[in-house]
Design goal:
The chain has about 575 residues and is an alpha/beta fold. The protein has 4 domains: about 200 residues, P-loop containing nucleotide triphosphate hydrolases (Rossmann fold), CATH 3.40.50; about 150 residues, P-loop containing nucleotide triphosphate hydrolases (Rossmann fold, 3-Layer(aba) Sandwich); about 60 residues, no CATH class; about 120 residues, 2-Layer Sandwich (Alpha-Beta Plaits), CATH 3.30.70.330.
């Protein structure tokens, strides 16, 4: 086991940069990747969670292997988002601050392309880029990557989920055949395997921890409530942790906006991050969140990709993502840089199966927790308030001249009354809100009744569905995207403010799916699925014009369609 960066074969100029940044001992991924890159010319797949030091793992050896006297571009790092691109470039510049002549450039959309073109003309040895902007520059003839010796895919799984496959193909077609390709990813998804097979030659695989497993420092909890109680449950979870500094994940832009607005109206330091924001608005929100002027950031998965915030206390899943890899990415945003963190899931009864699936995927168990009562929260907040007060440092030079007047005004109050008034002044919001607060937990008897109803629903659904008016919906996703009946049902029953929606037949084919659901909720169902993203594919949904077969399909029809039919409660 190597204990210092010097033991890894790093030269002195880079060691100076690492030392000035406070780097002391290499992380496990750095211990394995850095010597391999420096000693052998190999392609590599490295699987490790975010926050484990991946940037230094590939960035440090890439700097050392680059000839700073040659202005030709020798290294290319591809990132899924603008934020990650900028962060990686900043890190490489810091690592190489004592390396003379080395230039690193971040190339991304949302910034002046003319300034990036001017910087490229001066000569840049390492380019850190988002695929869209780099492909644009290639098409304009403003960048030359024909001499690249190293290509790094950072957070490759997210890049593929965001639909950059065509851009990656175009970019890599401009690079030489003789190069080393390094792929860094949190999960080994089907898409990551495909890119490794397509662009890499006999790659060495380095896995830190278990494949697709969750980060070691993250604890996983879930709270079970009725769908209608999801927002009040969120407030209690936040209120029960006074030092909460969290990202709250929602499925859609609309839901993100609604939840953030509710939190703001209820007095929380919160804001939303979603795709409808301009880049300037996005930068402003992130600036406030990083300096902790915001306590809660409500975001969609796409909007949160590439965010670099190391000290989150919690990640809160207001809704679970549609795929298990999405949960791994979300939870990996807390518990970083050696800190511990908590990933919270708020679920309703029909989503219990999702928790079991995620447990298998991340190789960790969730702890089922109870939504705290109003009395519990008030006690927690009171103790926190007293802790804050006792730690306040008194500026005697400022206070002493005012003390006589203050003492005179408060002199009529005895000690007990003064304490109670002070507490009431700071604490009335919680006392008022949580007075007679109901229990939001789903109790065991209700779970059993629900399980019995599910069983009866499956057994007798055929008879009851005749009386129910259903609308048929057609979706452009199917088995290839990992769609399961339970997931579709969970998505429908997770629609906020609606409650349980009756679902009829579900038919899942290779690339498409059809389902029946209560016609009264057609607009809500269309809105819930439209533009959602499942395993990298944007979902479209429409009302189906054709009916399901009234009887079982013929054998040749089944053979050609290879679909499976399900009946849902």
């Amino acid at each position: 086991m190597m204990n210092t960066f010097a033991d890894l074969g790093i030269n002195n100029d880079i060691l100076k940069g690492l030392s000035s940044l406070g780097f002391q001992e290499p992380t496990p991924v750095q211990e394995q990747v850095i010597p391999l890159m420096l000693e052998r010319q190999v392609d590599m797949v490295s699987l490790a969670q975010t926050g484990t030091g991946k940037t230094a793992a590939f960035g440090v050896p890439l700097i050392q292997l680059t000839n700073s006297k040659n202005k030709q571009t020798q290294g290319l790092i591809l990132c899924p988002t603008r934020e990650l691109c900028m962060q990686v470039a900043r890190d490489l510049e810091a690592f190489s601050r004592h390396v003379k002549g080395l230039r690193v450039l971040a190339v991304y959309g949302g910034a002046s392309i003319e300034q990036q073109i001017n910087a490229l003309r001066k000569g840049v040895q390492i380019i850190v880029a988002t695929p869209g902007r780099l492909n644009d520059l290639i098409n304009r003839g403003n960048v030359n990557i024909s001499g690249v010796r190293y290509v790094v895919f950072d957070e490759a799984d997210e890049m593929l989920q965001m639909g950059f496959q065509d851009e990656l193909n175009a970019i890599l077609a401009q690079t030489p055949a003789e190069k080393n390709t390094l792929l860094f990813s949190a999960t080994m998804s089907r898409e990551v395997k495909a890119i490794a097979g397509r662009y890499m030659s006999d790659p060495v695989e380095i896995t830190i921890g278990k494949r697709n497993a969750g980060a070691e420092n993250v604890h996983h909890e879930y709270y079970m409530v009725h769908a209608r109680d999801r927002y009040p449950a969120l407030k209690r979870i936040v209120d029960n942790c006074p030092d909460n500094y969290s990202i709250i994940f929602c499925r859609t832009r609309r839901e993100t906006h609604e939840v953030a607005n509710k939190l703001i109206q209820d007095g929380y330091n919160a804001d939303a991050l979603h795709g409808d924001l301009s880049q300037a608005q996005r930068d402003q929100v992130m600036k406030k969140f990083r300096c902790k002027n915001l306590q809660l950031l409500v975001a969609t998965d796409v909007a949160a990709r590439g965010l670099d915030v190391n000290d989150l206390t919690h990640v809160i899943n207001y809704n679970l993502p549609d795929d298990n890899a999405g949960y791994t990415h979300r939870s990996g945003r807390t518990g970083r840089a050696g800190r511990s963190g908590t990933s919270v899931a708020i679920i309703h009864m029909k989503e219990r199966f999702k928790i079991r699936q995620i447990e298998k995927n991340i190789k960790k168990k969730f702890k089922q927790c109870r939504i705290p009562s109003g009395a519990d929260i008030c006690k927690k907040q009171l103790v926190n308030l007293i802790d804050v007060v006792t730690k306040v440092e008194v500026d005697h030079d400022q206070i002493d001249p005012l003390y006589a007047e203050i003492s005179e005004k408060l002199g009529a109050l005895d000690r007990e009354e003064l304490i109670k008034k002070f507490i009431s002044l700071e604490f009335n919001r919680f006392l008022k809100y949580y007075k007679n607060a109901p229990d939001l937990n789903v109790d065991d008897r209700e779970k059993k009744r629900h399980g019995k109803r599910e069983h009866q629903g499956r057994e007798f659904h055929h008879n009851s569905s005749r009386k129910q008016k259903f609308t048929q919906f057609f979706l452009n996703v199917g088995r290839r995207q990992g769609i399961m009946p339970q997931g579709l049902i969970g998505k429908i029953n997770g629609i906020p403010g609606v409650g349980r929606i009756k679902v009829g037949k579900i038919e899942i084919l290779r690339n498409t799916a059809r389902l029946e659901a209560d016609s009264r909720y057609t607009p809500q169902i269309l809105a819930a699925f439209q533009h959602a993203e499942i395993n990298g594919k944007t979902v479209s949904i429409e009302v189906s014009r054709t009916n399901y077969p009234a009887s079982r399909p013929k054998h040749d029809e089944i053979r050609h369609r290879k679909g499976r039919k399900f009946k849902a409660a």
